[in-house]
Amino acid sequence: MATQHFDTLIIGAGLSGISMGCHLKQQCPNQNFAILERRQAIGGTWDLFRYPGIRSDSDMASFGFEFRPWDGLSVLADGPSIREYINDTAKEFKVEGKVHFGLKITQANWDSSRQLWCVSALNEQTGESTTFTCGFLIPCTGYYNYDQGFLPDFPGQENFKGLQVHPQKWPENLDYTNKKIVVIGSGATAVTIVPAMADKAKHVTMLQRSPSYIFSVPSVDALSKVLGYVLPKRWVFSMARRRNIFLQRAMFKTAKRWPELVKKLLLKAVKKQFPADYDMTHFTPKYPPWDQRLCAVPDGDLFEAIKSSKASVETDTIETFTETGIQLTSGKHLEADIIVTATGLNLQVLGGMNLSIDNNTLELNKHMTYKGVLAENIPNIAWIFGYTNAPWTLKADLAANYICRLFNYMEQHNYNVAMPVNTSEKPLNETVMDEMNSGYVRRAKDVLPRQGSSSPWRVLNKYEIDKVTLLKDEINDGILSFEKEQSQAEKPLANQAC
Question: First-to-last CA distance in the chain?
Fold first, then answer.
């Protein structure tokens, strides 16, 4: 099979990949690009996860694409709605036809003599390998391993006679009616699953080693609903987006500046949800707000499930699994028919592909990122990596806009190669996600790219600054190095075998 060549290859047809494709369609009409997707459907994370109650953990007004704002009234939308939104966006911007499905990217090698990437893809259904070449490579693969979620080595796990389920591998049509369920975890997935399963289950227990900050948000955007009666729909949802971005950023900044005050307010709001004698240790974290992501629950559904006695919370450690449940260190035994291990993710960069330059292997954890988008001393590669302290899509949109600005600058000046060159900055022993202290981030310390002490080598996670850096600052800043396109006489054919 002949090697297929494209100006740009986007890896992944999830939220970030579709966004990148739509930006190219709008801003770089001369770009011939394709999207390579491992799964058989568009949607990425939102196609993979199918557990009960799956929904966004950010408000949809700011989580939606800037170029196609979310126009629903749900504050935290469910998974199927988000999946439909991504698919509809791909259709509207005519990106759907650019997607090549069922291809796992195994290797990408930069060939300096040809000024292009040679990309190896495996069709996992047929076992057939395919090769693509491209001038620019843009992984939009997120940051975790789709094959397997994180599962601690719990003592006695093999003893349990019931069903063990990880949210990342949820069995289709699982019937949990009238079952006793224990959900291990306290993050966004756990607080979503517990109330979603409580209606049909006999009882659901959320077993946590330590609590997370949880706050209630309205399920419906009441203000936008009212404004929708008197203003054009486009205005209403544009205003909602600006409003929610401002509120989210203000909340984060306040939490960082006055952590004790924000902690007090968050816990006070939770306490109002329960009777006066409720044990608040179950909802009182030991860390400051935003050291880990806050968990939002629509209309306090988790609290309502607990008050109805359909669900409960245990804060304890696991001594061992037993045949019929979990024995806790405190001596208490939790009976269970089903144990849901909502224990987090395994982080992975670039979807697990191997990266090399002229067949010399690259280790991304030894490189810094430039403006959080390009890679130090690696030519013609950009990655879309969203915010960890705000809706992912805010940074993904900014990064895609920057990449389009870069492409147009290169086309204008007949450049074929762009690479950020580091001559003086020393990488710190910090990763691009070190602002968060979540377990999955700590486990990935040796996997993620490094960052430096100052811009552009430091990931700021500050939307208002990133807007200027990525949308306004000069492209040619003295750090980016450019190479002219080779003449046709000296340039080997792009579509010849790698």
Answer: 12
Instruction: Give CA angle at 76 (48, 195), nearest 5°.
Output: 80
- What is the rounded average pLDDT for all residues in the chain? 93
- Rounded distance between C-alpha atoms, residue 418 and residue 415, angstroms: 8
Side-chain-side CA neighbours of residue 42 (13 Å): 23
Q: Look-up: residue for tokens 């109330």?
A: 195
Residue 427 pLDDT: 87
Kindly give, in sequence order, each residue whose CB lies less than 8 Å from that of residue 280, ignoring residues fewer than 6 positions away. 267, 270, 271, 274
Spatial contact of 208 and 190, defined as CB atoms under 8 Å apart: yes
pTM beyond cutoff 0.90: yes
**Ranges of each domain in the chain:** 4-146+347-484, 157-341
Helix (H), strand (E) at residue 11: strand 4-11
Question: Which residue pairs, CB below 8 angstroms and at least 24 apart, start in 456-459?
Answer: 456/370, 456/371, 456/420, 457/368, 457/369, 457/370, 457/376, 457/422, 457/425, 457/427, 459/369, 459/372, 459/432, 459/435
Sign of the CA dihedral with 85 first, then 87, 91, and 96 last: positive
pLDDT at 488: 55
Interacting residues of 52 by C-beta distance below 8 A, sequence separation 6+: 170, 193, 196, 197
Class of domain 4-146+347-484: alpha beta
Same fold, 4-146+347-484 and 157-341: yes
Give the mean pLDDT of 52-76.
93
Of 3, 8, 2, which Cα lies nearest the Cα of 381?
8
Mean pLDDT on 184-209: 97
pLDDT band at 1 (very low <50, low <70, confident <90, very high): low
Predicted confidence (pLDDT) per residue in 217-246, tens digit: 999 999 999 999 999 998 999 999 999 999
Q: Return the CATH superfamily for domain 157-341.
A: FAD/NAD(P)-binding domain (3.50.50.60)
Lowest mean pLDDT among 140-149, 251-260, 441-450: 441-450
8 Å CB contact between 129 and 377: no
| Long-range own/partner contacts, residues 249-256 (CB < 8 A, 24 or more apart) | 249/390, 249/463, 249/464, 252/290, 252/389, 252/390, 255/288, 255/289, 255/290, 256/290
> Which residue is it, tokens 């993050």?
187
**What 3-state DSSP class applies to 239?**
helix
CA 378, 379, 380 angle in degrees (round to 5)? 125
The larger pLDDT score, comparing residue 240 to residue 441, is at: 240
pLDDT category at 495 given cuts 50, 70, 90 is: low
Quote the distance between the C-alpha of residue 62 and its chain's center: 14
- With a CB cutoff of 8 Å and minimum separation 6, the contacts of 210 are 186, 285, 286, 315
